[in-house]
Write a structure and sequence with these properties.
Elements lengths: L21 H14 L4 E4 L2 H14 L5 E4 L5 H4 L4
Parallel strand pairs: 1-2
């Protein structure tokens, strides 16, 4: 929309999703993390970020990167090729 984290050359893949059901959200987040453990999750709302942190704390023993969109800079999400 505003190309907030637009990346030249396709270094960063952005997946933007909104879910109706919580369980569907958790299932999708787990699937994405399983496919790419380096995935960075970015939330807009403090409650959503807190829920995501709690979910991953109970679902995985590996650290998961979760950022607040209001405080996230492009350099935090870019991946070198």
């Amino acid at each position: 929309m505003f190309e907030l984290f637009h990346s030249e050359g396709g270094k960063t893949k952005i997946i933007d999703r909104v879910f109706i059901h919580r369980q569907g959200k958790w299932n999708y987040c787990q699937k994405i993390l399983t496919e790419d453990p380096k995935t960075i999750f970015i939330g807009w709302f403090d409650d959503s970020i807190s829920e995501l942190e709690k979910f991953f704390a109970s679902a995985t023993s590996s650290p998961v990167s979760i950022l607040n969109a209001r405080a996230t800079h492009r350099s935090q999400v870019e991946r070198p090729q």
